[in-house]
Amino acid sequence: MFKYRLLVHSASQVVTVRNDAKIIAARGQEMRHVDIVEGTEQCGVSVLIDSNGKIAFVGLDTDVAFEFPDVHKEVERTIDARGKSIVPGLVDAHTHPVWVGDRVHEFAMKLAGATYMEVHAAGGGIHYTVEKTRNASEEELYCSLVERLYSMLSTGTTCVECKSGYGLDVDTEIKMLSVIEKARKEVPISISCTYCGAHAVPKGKTSQEATDDVIKHQIPKIRELMSKEELHVDNIDVFCEKGVFDVNQSRRILQAGKDAGMNLNFHGDELSPLDGAKMGAELGALAISHLEEISDSGIDAMTKAGSVGVVLPTTAYILRLTPPPVRKMIESGMAVALGSDFNPNAYCMSMPMVMHLACVIFRMSMPEALVAATLNSAAALGRSGDLGTLSVGKCGDMVIINAPRWEHLVYQFGCHNETISSVIRNGDVVHDAGQCCG
């Protein structure tokens, strides 16, 4: 039995993001910098992972040899990272990965000028995917989810938020949550599970009827399965939007989820300025996503409440929306996180591409983007106590980059297949560019 699971040595630099494991989020100007252990021409940097998958040491090769003199006899695996850099495993704070039936045909409609809600009103969008997903078997949904999760791993994501939301009825929502539950146990990626039964108003129902169904039927059934430990649901989501669920309906749904033990992590102020962010902050939301139309009062409320703002550059890109006021959000002191928003409408699961788009579209710096894709995205899921930084005591999740400086992960747009050498989760290699690990 080995005392240590993995030693990565000789790296040019290791970006811990924060050396202090007690820091649970970076807010405002704190996002401007990342902590880095730099190597020298004579000495590289090491990361040592213990047998429990936790970080035991980060520092110069000479220091690890001094503090752990027998480490090469006690470690199960070593990786020579000479000429390479290391960052924490990326955390994708917002995805919709459980569905069948792509919507490639809608891309042409959008390119021709159709808005998101026009596609939705024409029977496309969420409702199209709902029909396909309701008719799919659990096995079909599971196989497609697993394939997507391994693709995410290959791009450096070691923790991902996974939503339901393409069922809109209790049976299909539970089918989706069950698929996520199975993947949590069988795929080497950390999953934060989100119930999103209020993703849209089902055909044949009013928004009020849909609200009542979620509160009176869906949440109680999910809560029952959670009490039996058949499901583990971390968060509740609602699409708080004009023509979907209004602020009062969203408040009722979120409160019911909170009463059932779920964190509040929802869609707010995406297409219309409804002050959903302000409402969420009042309820103590852990995180609120999109925020393209957030008001100044909403920014102030989220900042004071400590709610994380999850911004999604792929959505602004694909829908040609006015970007959220990210610079104002950061300058206000808000903790800003990133998510891919992977779904049939925005088909991107690469967090390096998301970081690049965030820098270009949202005018974030590269350090801000990395903080938003690691520490703050983990905070948006309530997981920054064990994920998001390469700090001693946290999970040994990291990405080894084929370049001496970490910025290449962001700079080389769309080139993660070349820039990522290995992806490590809990000290285990779960993706290696040189071979198949999945």
Q: Can you walk through the features of this model?
A:
The protein contains 18 helices and 18 strands. It is an alpha/beta fold. Strands 8-9-10-11-12-13-14-15 form an 8-stranded parallel beta sheet. The protein has a 6-stranded mixed beta sheet with strand order 3-2-7-16-17-18. Strands 5-4-1-6 form a 4-stranded mixed beta sheet. The radius of gyration is 21 Å and the shape is globular.
In angstroms, what separates the terminal alpha carbons? 24 Å
What percentage of the residues does DSSP assign to strands (E)? 15-25%
Number of helices: 18
Secondary structure class reads: alpha/beta
Instruction: Average the pLDDT over all residues and give the rounded result.
Output: 96
Shape by Cα distribution: globular
What is the spatial order of strands in the main beta sheet? Answer: 8-9-10-11-12-13-14-15
Low-confidence stretches: none
* Major sheet size, sense and barrel closure: 8 strands, parallel
- The overall strand count is 18
Rg, Å, rounded: 21 Å
Helix content class:
25-40%
List keywords for this structure.
alpha/beta; 8-stranded parallel beta sheet; 6-stranded mixed beta sheet; 18 helices; 18 strands
Q: What's the topology here?
A:
Layout: E1 4-11, E2 13-17, E3 35-38, E4 45-50, E5 55-60, H1 61-67, H2 71-74, E6 75-80, E7 85-88, E8 90-92, H3 104-111, H4 116-121, H5 126-135, H6 138-154, E9 157-163, H7 170-186, E10 190-198, H8 207-227, E11 235-240, H9 247-259, E12 263-268, H10 276-282, E13 287-290, H11 296-305, E14 308-311, H12 313-319, H13 326-331, E15 336-338, H14 351-361, H15 366-372, H16 375-380, E16 398-401, H17 408-411, H18 416-419, E17 420-425, E18 428-432
Parallel strand pairs: 1-6, 2-7, 8-9, 9-10, 10-11, 11-12, 12-13, 13-14, 14-15
Antiparallel strand pairs: 1-4, 2-3, 4-5, 7-16, 16-17, 17-18
